[in-house]
Input
Amino acid sequence: MLSSGICKMEKSILNQLLLKPCIAKSFSHAQWDLCLRQAQVANLLGRLDFVLERHDNLQYLPQRALNHLNAALLRSNKQHQDIKAEAKLLSSHLTDSGLEITFLKGAAYVLTGIACEGRICSDIDILVKKSQLAKVEQRLEAVGWAPEAINDYDKKYYRQWMHEIPPMIHLGRQTILDVHHNIVPLTAEKLPNALQLLESRCPTDNEKTHYALAPMDMILHSAVHLFSEGELDKGLRDLTDLDLLFKHYFDDPSLDHCRSKQLFSRASQLNIESSLVYALRYCDKVLNTQLPQQCLLESAKDSNNIFKLAILDYCYHHTFVPYHSSCQGINFEVASFILYLRSHLKKMPLRLLLPHLSIKWWQRAKKMFVVT
Amino acid sequence: MILILSTYSKKEFCQRIKTTGLNIKIGPFYIKLTSNIPSLLDNFYFLYSDCAIVGDDQYIDFHICLKPPSIFRRWYRPQVNFFLNEFRPFKPLPIDQTMAFFEWGLNWTIAQQALQYLIIHAAVVEKEGKAIILPGMPGAGKSTLCAAMAHHGWRLLSDEQALITKNAAEIVPLVRPINLKNQSIEVIKNFCPDAQFGQIFKQTSRGDICHVKAPSDAIAKITETAQPFAIIFPSFNNEPSPTKLTPMAKGETVIELINHCFNYSILGLDGFNRLTTVVENSQCFSLSYSDLTSAISTLDELY
Output
């Protein structure tokens, strides 16, 4: 099973390139064609341009492929411009009313300039204090944001169990906004204290217009998000985010030792050590991220359950690939299913999960029935 | 040597498009089309017969696939889906509109992805290397005028999209079938006896649709670009009335053209520079017409 799995993975030419950029030299036009199609599906077209440029590999691309990379770059630049404009409005509307907001994920990468290379975002994520949540919602509704239409069950699901409220949409600009009050679902076994994250947030500009999490917390949030995710269609993209976040955090070798220590102690303070360990492990394995020795040693200490780790290795090996038909086979299906179940089990205990999944599957079946 | 589609027998063509996909050059783009829908195969083989075949070792710009959503849907009110690199940007359409769906889907694909060009929603025809750009809202008679001109001494560059190059000096041909709607189908059948028509698709979301095959010489000159020469905003009058060519100010033309661009805002300053350069180098008019012969001779006088 494993050997056929490795065989299938070989078909992700994008993964091979990310792991070993020097192979670009020998790519044929047809291989570039497949590589860019995989990158497009994985939402990595814009980022691929940066990866190729960093390794001086753009010269090997046919002109047609360059056109597509340039187009992806134009699209992501335009989106970054739009996100900055939207962030400016959000920050001013909310801080005017004495409310604090902190940008997360894509919007935070764009505003801080860390891990924003060619990044495409589907929405804007913000973190607010739970005590201010009601006021934030009120204020947002007053300036043109409305909750997206969802059914009553989903509404209850969000309000009762989730770390975010139902997505909001700006009625004029159609931007989607996710308002979070924690970084993992409230039903999770170990709930981090969101106030600790907010206490150490940092301004993204000199004028202190916008705030994002501290660089260390940005890594941890990205890790906890990715390794509790059940559907990994954007998994490879998110892993490249982590790669860039690590590169930025460990930018000075003389500080590696101390920063590595700080990172692990912060992770344990927030109860999300295992996510950090996985982030390091798969950045190393899938993207060959240059990580300090100290970090890898520290993460090896934690990984005592060899059996569990072997299963996760199998799963992530087959799912950190573009969700493109050329990379999908039986191993991909099995691995995705295991991760889907694992994610739900981590999010909520069985007594909540079983009724929840039954309702979700019933809703999905009903929808399919109505459509056909 | 360039191999064109009609050198394949119908059987060979069908086999390719159903299995490995057919690599074809449409305008400056390389496209791989995969489909097993008979009506698309018939219409495509007829309408694109003059286009060049592209080798399997090339970088392909757009991988397009049209196929039914499910086995069930092949029998019960059959539908078709449009996929661009495995992504489905649109809801399915009735299967008998597959050819029209391909044309719309390709328009969308180019408008979204070909950001190396500033793309204006306009027909383009050329004489003596000088291009006339005919922008127009749906129903303004842009395609009708374009089809008529393409069969009366002008070379067709595009019926739908004007591709403006980086320095705005040239327009790149994107020769494809001309898309006629409703009463203009009958008008062009009468006005251009040598035009070749595809199947008529009744009652689509845009009314009755018929594609006119692009003239062979226009496809043969697919690599010959043209310089912007005139920008004409046509408007067709149902009531018989004299042809009227009214000069337009350059500023007004720019503002009006922005509304007809597909990718102006994403190109930013570059888009603005290209658009203003095109307008700078062109004569600008609005044209009101009810008679094609008179409209064409009026435009002839510009040269």
User: Anything to note?
Assistant: The longest strand of chain A covers residues 176-180.
